[in-house]
Amino acid sequence: MATAPNGSVRKRVIVVGGGFAGMNAALGLAKLPVDITLIDRRNHHTFQPLLYQVALAVLSPAEIAQPIRSILRDHRNIEVLMDEVVGFDLSERRVHLKTGAVLEYDYLVLGTGSTHSYFGRDDWAPLAPGLKTVEDATEIRRRVLLAFELAERQMQEDGSHPPLNFVIVGGGPTGVELAGAISDIARLYMARDFRHINPATAHVLILEGSPNVLGAYPPDLQQKAVEQLADLGVAVRTGARVTDIQPGYVMIGDERLESAVTLWAAGVQASPLGKMLGVPLDKRGCVLVDQFLNPPGHPEVFVCGDLAHVEENGRLVPGVAQPAMQMGTYAAKRIGRLIGIGLGSDGTGLNEPFHYFDKGDMATIGRKAAVANIKWPFKGRWSGLPAWLTWLFVHIFFLIGFRNRIAVFRQWAWTYLTFSDGARLITGSVELPGWNAEYAAQHTDAIIDPVETPLGEG
Questions:
Q1: pLDDT value at residue 443
Q2: For residue 300, what are the domain limits?
């Protein structure tokens, strides 16, 4: 059994999840005299803020994902297991894995994130994929690109094709980013690729149930976002609650909207691992934690990222990358102090609570279009090209791996200068839900027109 420099037995820390929270926790713990095991179902860390660029063929998966082992290989006190956690025994401090292995720990860090929430309508999931993983991104890419290919083929065979309507349910950052990117790829990057259809005739619609898109942003930036979406030809309908999703269409009450591709960006719920802990949860399945990120009665367990319900000054800390990274770093620091490292001579620092340092928010809308609400290192709000450039450089900076930063910057520069995409590949099935000859004959005029759908109307 390994020992610490002072002769005591080294503590064992298990980190579950290789996302932002888990990776930052592992990298912080690597500096301590502890032994760490990081467990994840996948072998790679994904930079989720850029998943939509994989989904719309600007970047390839390898440019925003990197093997967890390669990120952590220089830290000899970390081992990586590609496995799935299926249960916990908190009283015995044990983690049960799908392979049957049982691991013991002194400290446990959970950062397994969140998944899509269809608000009780899980039957919608196959018809309207969300965007959380590389697999999700490649499926969205398949559907969007395939819609144009099927329209081209059907136009050649029959002289008509169903309308290229793309409906995004949800007007948060992910929904806005997907809508702008679909508009860009249709109007700019595929303009000369087809002979029988005009991709620029595609119609993109965002359906948002609340009164505004980008609800967490200041009202002036919400309006700027709507204006930039309008410039891209994206229609926005707020106060529009989806009541049903079926192959080829979406229902808002009694109104039917034809949709070649429907995408989901309306809700998330916590990873199911929270329920396995047997501790109090909120309605989204997030674990209720205290100021040290511990669930009640378990100071040795740290819950981070989207899985944690953390409140500060009466407001819920958002489930996005920035707080997840900070929580992972805090958990590592807190464990160090609990084993006596990083404390002041009088023990100060032991009871320092977690504090979320909000640096601001950014959302990209399209080529040279974005909104930014910056709170650090200076305060400012801007939109358009300045916000887009800020978003670009911030995201490159936070990408893990020097190779990834260079690859992404090179691909972005090439795409920007040449109006071409380098990852426009269709893999898997060549069928779309609801797309067939009968549908084409019946719905050639069922087009969503941004002019006829006033922005902001519910």
A1: 54
A2: 11-41+83-117+268-338
